[in-house]
Amino acid sequence: MTDLSAHGITVGLPTGWEGRVFRRPSAGEVSASAADGPPAPSGEVTYAVVHVATIPLPPDLGDFGSAAVPDLGPNDAFVMLVEFAPDQVTQPLFARSGVPRSLKADDFSPQVMQRRIEGQAGCQIFCNEAGRAFCLYVVIGAFRTRDRTVPRVNEVLAGLDIDGAGASAASSAPSTTSTTAPAPSTTVPSPTTAPPTSSVAPPPSTTAPTDPNPAP
């Protein structure tokens, strides 16, 4: 198990997973790594993003990983945790307390996808923890194999730790990226770049998430 820690978030990487914890740089700020992407427009504040997947993660992914999701094989998964502005914590959409550390196979549905991909399924949960607002979005490569894929996702969630130091308050903390041994079903995604956009207000909980930083 490899631990990643940055911006008040720590996540453990089981064998076969790759991940990073980062924050897109604000205007005029130098990024900690190439994976952080281009700076946000002037005046916009950026917050923490966690990407953990069983496939290689290309740089400059949108917050909800739209460019990498099509490369998930039937036994693959992509876990994304996206932080929103602190004032969202008191909004009804984020009323659920605590990022879940365990999901059920029945929590996943083909209808909960940012972009519908045949055979895949997603799970989306808006919540708050440690005074911070988050959207947890998980995509599995095949709905039919969810009974064996979701327990692997839960290994990642079980190793998640969040403290009250938000990304904007820890801007000097470097982003972290790490890879464990490759998963058997790994497929290499095509290189992609994402335009320099930043987080917007989250969508209603009954719809798939809108990627604040979409890939072209």
Overview of the molecule:
The chain has one helix and nine strands, in the order E-E-E-E-E-E-E-H-E-E. The chain is mainly beta and 216 residues long. The protein has one domain (2-179). The protein is globular. Mean pLDDT is 80; it is low at 181-208.
Could you outline the blueprint of secondary structure elements for this entry?
Layout lengths: L1 E5 L2 E5 L4 E6 L24 E6 L23 E8 L36 E9 L2 E9 L5 H13 L2 E2 L13 E4 L37
Antiparallel strand pairs: 1-2, 2-8, 3-4, 3-9, 4-5, 5-7, 6-7
Keywords, separated by commas or semicolons:
216 residues, mainly beta, six-stranded antiparallel sheet, three-stranded antiparallel sheet, 9 strands, 6% helix
Distance between the termini: 33 Å
In total, the number of domains comes to: 1
Work out the oligomeric state of the chains in this entry: single chain
Number of continuous helical runs: 1
Q: Sheet with the most strands?
A: 6 strands, antiparallel
Residue share in helix:
under 10%
Low-confidence runs of at least 5 consecutive residues:
181-208
Strand order of the largest sheet: 6-7-5-4-3-9
Order of helices and strands: EEEEEEEHEE
- Structural class designation: mainly beta
User: Can you tell me the overall shape?
Assistant: globular
**Computed CA radius of gyration, to the nearest angstrom:** 16 Å
Look at the structure and give the mean pLDDT: 80
